[in-house]
Amino acid sequence: MAGKIPRQFIDELLVRVDIVDIIDSHVPLKKMGSNYTARCPFHNEKSPSFNVNRNKQFYHCFGCGAGGNVISFLMEFNHLSFVETIEELATVAGVEIPYENQTGYEPEAKNKLVELQEIMAACATFYTQQLKKHPQKQIAVEYLKNRGITGVIARDFMIGYAPDGWQILSPHFKNTELLCEAGMLAFKNDMYYDRFRQRIMFPIRNKRGHVIGFGGRVLDDSQQPKYLNSPETPLFHKSNEVYGLYELLKKNPKPARILIVEGYMDVVTLAQFGIDYSVAALGTNLTATQLQLLFRSTPEVILCFDGDNAGQNAAWKAMDAVFSVLNDNRQVRVLILPSPHDPDSLLREEGTQAFLQRIENAEMVSSYFFNHFTATLNLDSIEGRAKLAGQAKPFLLKLADGFFKNMMLAKLEELTHFDVAPEIEKETVAPPQNQHQKEKNVRHSMERLTLALLVQNPKLATKLEANPIDWQTLEFSGIDIFKAIVQKICIEKPTSTAQLLEHYRGLPEEKMLNALASLPILIPDDGIEAEFSGGLKQLILQGRKNRLNKLVEKEKTEGLTKDEKDFLRRLLQF
């Protein structure tokens, strides 16, 4: 098991990566002044209240309160553990993590995830072994041969076989509790039993190659369900992952395009025919998170759906996610196969070249989108055009501002003979000066404002090193926390708010630090240093005055100790 990740490495990693670039690859951002904005990915909203600041390397949503550095964002957005997030950022930065060999470092949650990863990997190996040596293996081998799957492809995708039997995994692994948590066992009628039985097994691997779940296909189409997926587990969130991405990126880390198909077998068959850039959604409607995952590796995604009613419905349902992630640098096309074909049957009927030509001729999403409406609406009537405007509008509201959005609006105006732009702008654009009026109208105490300035601009700590604070002279509510944070900054010397926040991750002060980091401060950049110096000076003067008054009052009523008299004389000298 890997050792501790050095604090210095984490600090350096936060310098190497840019929060704006990372978040923009997940949620398209729009520059507004010194910040970047978007509609918050953590709650539903019409007007953007999600802000990212490049200088502070910090994000904050004024709607739901979410905030933090790039590590916090990836942990929340991608449902990753802390260590998994550091691993992903290290991959982005192109650096190796210099683990320290300290046993017992990882917290219990990390240990559990590692245990789950290990048992899932062991299950995948177990199933591949069953395909080679189990007495019932022939029925599975014949099925794969009939589908034209070679041993090389089966190896590349780690395809296996779950034999027919209620309790095969338990005796082999002897860890019922962990198998249940991994989703490999189910419980019914006071008995644990194998979730996957008499099925071809497709391990689902994440981008890092860890087996996080399985898809199992029946050998006899009369059995139901035809496909069975792993349930949601601490490792596996099916709306966040796709099947085949690891295998795809292993061959080509930066594919020109990625083809999304409906099933595991479609991905495997396409690879068998030399089309090795496809992935499959995991038995659920295509999600924005899955598309964001793909767009991190390619500029173009092609949605390939079967030609039956279910496939056509799935293609249209995907538009909700598609319009949530589209921007000027991303392209989506749609390929609906002729009914009743799926990729497997069409490839065998037409051949590879004909299928590749279909991919090349796939319809642009803009054309597919408007054709969906014009096929059913009478645009010669006012009623039909009004329906078009009303039905298309929710999708256009999701688009990131840019040329693509403007052109889609222009096309809608052409079809409806109506200027829809003002209506769209009413719902998507909130006046910047009013966006966070509530927060801006709050008057903050001098100590809170001064500390917030330091948290948001930790390089101001050089002022404190040049003129150390006499902490005895300061007196106000929260002085202990103020002192602790100031001393932490002076010792650790973080270069950004992001680094400072990371030093408080998991500590009781973390929530307060996040609040200070997101505190709206309406001070020009060139005035921050003067404002901080002035605020600190005022706090010191006020603190001295408070201490002086208390000591004078005590001298009148109780008298002072020798140390108190010495301190009083010091205060009177200022």
Kindly summarize this structure in a few lines.
The chain is of the alpha+beta class and 574 residues long.
Key phrases:
single chain, 574 residues, alpha+beta, DNA Primase, Chain A, DNA primase DNAg catalytic core, N-terminal domain, Dna Topoisomerase Vi A Subunit, Chain: A, domain 2, 5 domains, 5-stranded antiparallel β-sheet, 5-stranded mixed β-sheet, globular
Q: Taking all residues together, what is the mean pLDDT? A: 85
Classify the secondary structure makeup into a structural class. alpha+beta
Describe the main β-sheet briefly: 5 strands, antiparallel
Uncertain segments are 102-110, 429-442
Give the C-alpha Rg.
Answer: 30 Å
CATH third-tier fold name of the largest domain: DNAb Helicase, Chain A
Query: Helicity, in percent?
Result: 40-55%
CATH superfamily of the largest domain: DNAb Helicase, Chain A
Strand order of the largest sheet: 1-2-3-4-5
Q: Which of globular, elongated, flat, extended, rod-shaped describes the shape?
A: globular
Distance between the termini: 59 Å
Architecture per CATH nomenclature, i.e. the level-2 architecture of the largest domain: Orthogonal Bundle
In the CATH scheme, the class of the largest domain would be Mainly Alpha
Strand content: 5-15%
User: Count the helices. How many?
Assistant: 27
How many individual β-strands?
16
Number of domains: 5
